[in-house]
């Protein structure tokens, strides 16, 4: 096996780090939940094919979430903050309605916010169904393009279904939901509660939502899966990949990166096709400068994924009419929200990762280190909680346009 050639799992694991940021979670959230899911699958006695489906379904479970960012921002303001808060409540009853009410119309004046709330709650389930249908359709299409196969596609379609049948979009219940997704449902939410409150908090959440959101059989197998994570979450998670012995060919890698670029472009309506356009221009420029064919291909690949960081910035910024409230320094990257809540008992390790999954100073694949609220090496004050960017000294500096 060519050790220099990437595997599909490695590329999609890198993508999952960007998905994490779009969910309002620290990087490696999906990788840690993948370790939990693998332990659950083993305890439940799932066969090899099912465990492979669990691995990939967990890794890209939220691959379609950015397709509805524009609509989420229209209803709830900061789309990333909204997604982060959905982990805190079971999607039913008064707590869920309170969570929706706390976000709907965010960023608008009192009158406009009241109108938005009235328009949303007249048909709240229908509004959510529209958003989730967009998510599931995009996730299914993208999973095909990523070469993940029909079992993963079927699992992703059920990402928002619930054991009690109250989920969306189809209202599947019980064993109508693929067992692989029932495992992912619990593992992905449990990782957040474990990181925020420890094993007891995660166990309490699982028991509270048993037979409503989660399969009781999966909850029963959950005890003991939340042991301490190894320092190298990346390597541990990738050991679970079902196709570790296969590397991507050149054309396969090109197709995979093009699909990822298209996925990133779904973040905003005006960026559809942007990554492909940048890749074509960059490749033409590289060719014009006399670069070798291999270097031209490398430039094109880099251009296809150059906007991955876009997913970690709320649509309220990308789609803000007019200038921003402060200047970003010349050549600086857009601020990345800091949502990396340390795990219980976390302690920093120089050059390594703490128990909460905080990334190294220089991340994998050249991803920049994340300082408090911004990408390392960028100018400007730290970003506030849940992605709101405060103004330095409370006053706007010279504006810059997106």
Automatic annotation (TrEMBL):
Q: Which intervals hold domain HD-GYP?
A: 249-402
A Pfam cross-reference name: HD
Which residues lie within the region annotated Disordered? 319-402
Q: Where is the composition biased (Low complexity)?
A: 321-349
Going by the entry's taxonomy, the superkingdom of the source organism is recorded as Bacteria
User: What SUPFAM superfamilies has UniProt attached to this entry?
Assistant: HD-domain/PDEase-like (SSF109604)
Record-linked CDD domains: HDc
Q: State the name under which the record lists this protein.
A: HD domain-containing protein
Q: Which organism is it from?
A: Labedaea rhizosphaerae
């Amino acid at each position: 096996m060519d050790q220099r050639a990437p595997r599909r799992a490695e590329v999609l694991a890198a993508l999952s780090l960007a998905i994490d940021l779009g969910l309002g979670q620290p990087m490696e959230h999906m990788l840690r939940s993948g370790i939990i899911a693998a332990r659950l699958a083993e305890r439940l006695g799932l066969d090899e094919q099912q465990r492979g489906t669990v691995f990939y379904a967990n890794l890209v479970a939220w691959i379609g979430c950015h397709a509805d960012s524009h609509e989420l921002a229209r209803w709830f303001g900061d789309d990333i903050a909204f997604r982060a808060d959905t982990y805190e409540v079971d999607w039913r009853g008064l707590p869920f309605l309170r969570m929706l009410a706390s976000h709907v119309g965010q960023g608008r004046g009192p009158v406009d916010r009241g109108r938005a709330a009235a328009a949303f709650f007249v048909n709240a389930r229908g509004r959510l169904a529209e958003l989730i249908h967009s998510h599931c359709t995009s996730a299914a299409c993208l999973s095909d393009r990523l070469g993940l196969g029909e079992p993963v596609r079927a699992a992703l379609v059920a990402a928002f279904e619930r054991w009690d049948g109250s989920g969306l979009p189809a209202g599947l219940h019980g064993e109508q939901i693929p067992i692989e997704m029932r495992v992912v449902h619990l593992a992905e939410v449990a990782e957040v509660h474990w990181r925020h409150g420890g094993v007891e908090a995660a166990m309490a959440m699982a028991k509270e939502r048993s037979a409503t959101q989660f399969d009781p059989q999966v909850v029963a197998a959950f005890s003991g899966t939340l042991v301490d994570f190894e320092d190298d979450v990346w390597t541990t998670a990738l050991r679970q990949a079902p196709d570790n012995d296969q590397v991507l060919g050149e054309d396969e890698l090109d197709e995979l990166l093009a699909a990822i670029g298209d996925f990133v472009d779904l973040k905003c309506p005006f960026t559809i096709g942007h990554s492909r356009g940048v890749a074509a221009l960059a490749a033409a420029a590289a060719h014009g400068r006399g670069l070798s064919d291999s270097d031209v291909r490398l430039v094109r690949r880099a251009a296809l994924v150059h906007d991955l960081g876009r997913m970690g910035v709320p649509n309220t910024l990308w789609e803000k009419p007019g200038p921003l409230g402060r200047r970003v320094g010349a050549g600086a990257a857009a601020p990345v929200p800091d949502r990396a809540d340390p795990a219980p008992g976390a302690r920093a390790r120089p050059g390594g990762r703490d128990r909460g999954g905080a990334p190294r100073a220089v991340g994998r694949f050249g991803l920049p280190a994340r300082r408090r609220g911004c990408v390392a090496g960028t100018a400007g004050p730290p970003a506030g909680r849940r992605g709101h960017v405060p103004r330095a000294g409370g006053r706007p500096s010279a504006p810059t346009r997106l």
